[in-house]
Write a structure and sequence with these properties.
Layout: E1 4-6, E2 12-15, E3 46-50, E4 55-59, E5 71-74, E6 94-98, E7 107-112, E8 124-128, E9 139-143, E10 155-159, E11 168-172, E12 177-180, E13 188-190, E14 201-208, E15 220-226, E16 232-238, E17 248-250, E18 263-266, E19 275-280, E20 285-289, E21 303-306, E22 326-330, E23 339-344, E24 357-361, E25 371-374, E26 391-398, E27 407-412, E28 425-430, E29 437-445, E30 461-462
Antiparallel strand pairs: 1-13, 2-9, 3-4, 3-30, 4-5, 6-7, 7-8, 8-9, 10-11, 11-12, 12-13, 14-15, 15-16, 16-17, 18-19, 19-20, 20-21, 22-23, 23-24, 24-25, 26-27, 27-28, 28-29
């Protein structure tokens, strides 16, 4: 593929510390096929980013789910992790995963867009190596490839860009989209054809194989953020063997809300193609873009808007609900249709404003999706409906106990813990049929991991 290669001054740094040794590519046997199994034990692990505390906590999955007793917290003070913790770093602002060094173990990828780098662009991405003992074998840090960049690490994805069966790391900054070649360390590249409008500030990205024909079954990247006048931006660019940026476009013409931290992919209608779901919290809506041969064309026939006033959706649209502030997709009952969870952290529950709610919509063929609401006044859900809890500020479907059904992790960024206001908490509901069950619920907060602090919004990011 023809690539525009860029010099990486201050671009990549790797180190060992405390006797840790970096693994060499290809030296370990493949431990798992799961993209988020950091210790190779066959269970998916839940990552909890707390950027206000500059930390990422990994709770390891098991037959009994996740629990604080099986966890590790990673910061820039952790042995083997480059850098020094500073208040503005936002370490954990976004989290993704993938086998970056091709050793058979999944690695943890952490964005810190607020990181200040002397005489260079702000932001960094840290890759913490996975292994048989978890995240204990060192790390590597990437800084912005060029000095004129800003907030490098706003969003990360690790998928196969060029169709060679080797996944590559891609990173968005405030204004640019980069990807890296195979191997570690790797060279950075920029699109050959610029496609991001000059007035856009990017805030994240996701990717899936949306297309069935045309450019083939390569990954399409969806980038989102805002225009300078506050309008949301969502654009797409296809991967492939070359001319990256040529096949691209915008799909933000009908939106009135923000897509910040609210994009997910999965096969909701069971047709074998991933669908894109975006949250528009300012508009109290989500949009579903159905995958297939014609997604992201000018016609956009496969797009559908859902609000709390839609058929089958519980609740009613109210200005302060922020329905769509978070979204996630997963099959909670193993029926072959991916389901959608939508956070509405401003929802009023039992007359209490801002306690928050999560609406789960069951996947099926057809546009009308039935749903059920969960909140802290739901029987079996820990806690109580209190003002400002913001239950649903983050959501993540993931099968952490290996039973084939996606469990739902829910963040409540405004939860008070004792006298510590806005300390934050996470609740995990187990997958079941036809909906989530409120038996065997797990709930924890920063204090359970030795991080009891007010205002940190533990669980602000779930992955």
């Amino acid at each position: 593929m023809r690539l525009k290669k860029l010099a990486i001054a201050a671009g990549v740094a790797a180190l060992t510390a405390g006797g840790l040794t970096l693994p060499l590519a290809g030296t370990a046997s493949a431990a798992t096929a799961l993209k988020d199994d950091y210790n190779g034990d066959g269970y998916r692990d839940l990552a909890i980013g707390t950027p206000k505390a500059n930390s990422v906590t990994i709770t390891y999955g098991s037959a009994s789910g996740v629990a604080p007793a099986r966890s590790v917290t990673v910061t820039q003070e952790t042995a083997g992790v480059p850098g020094v913790t500073e208040a503005e770093d936002e370490f954990g602002e976004n989290v993704s995963s993938g086998d970056v060094n091709h050793d058979g173990y999944t690695d943890l990828i952490i964005g810190a867009p607020g990181e200040q780098v002397a005489d260079w662009a702000s932001g960094s991405v840290t890759v913490v190596w996975g292994g048989a003992k978890g995240l204990t074998t060192g790390a590597q840090v990437y800084h912005a490839p060029t000095k004129d960049d800003d907030r490098f690490g706003e969003g990360t994805v690790f998928v196969d860009l060029d169709g060679d069966d080797w996944a590559q790391l891609s990173v968005v900054s405030a204004k640019k989209w980069w990807w890296y070649g195979d191997g570690t360390p790797a060279s950075a590249y920029a699109p050959e054809v610029e496609f991001i409008p000059s007035d856009v500030t990017l805030e994240g990205q996701t990717a899936a194989q949306f297309h069935g024909t045309g450019v083939g079954r390569t990954y399409t990247y969806v980038l989102y953020g805002k225009h300078a006048d506050g309008r949301p931006y969502m654009g797409w660019v296809d991967g492939g063997a070359g001319d990256i940026g040529y096949y691209s476009g915008q799909i933000d013409g009908n939106f009135t809300g923000s897509t910040t931290e609210a994009a997910a992919t999965g096969d909701v209608n069971g047709d074998g193609y991933p669908d894109l779901i975006t949250g528009q919290a300012e508009d109290n809506s989500i949009w579903i873009f159905y995958g297939g041969s014609s997604i992201f064309t000018d016609e956009m026939e496969g797009m559908h808007k859902i609000t709390q006033d839609s058929t089958g959706v519980p609740g009613a649209t109210e200005t302060e609900d922020r329905f769509g502030a978070s979204v996630t997709v997963g099959d909670l009952d193993d029926d072959g249709f991916d389901d959608i969870a939508v956070g509405a952290p401003g929802e009023t529950v039992s007359g209490v404003k801002g306690t928050g709610s999560v609406v789960v919509l069951k996947g099926r063929s057809g546009y009308d999706l039935d749903g059920r609401a969960y909140h802290q006044a739901t029987t079996g859900v820990p806690g109580a409906a209190e003002a400002g809890d913001r239950f649903g500020s983050s959501v993540r479907f993931k099968d952490v106990n290996g039973d084939g059904r996606a469990d739902l992790a829910i963040g409540a960024s405004g939860e008070d813990i004792g006298t510590k206001a806005d300390a934050g908490a996470v609740t995990v509901l187990r997958g079941s049929s036809p909906y989530l069950t409120t038996s065997a619920v797990t709930s924890f907060n920063g204090a359970d991991f030795g991080r009891p602090a007010a205002g940190i919004s533990f669980g602000d990011v779930l992955r």
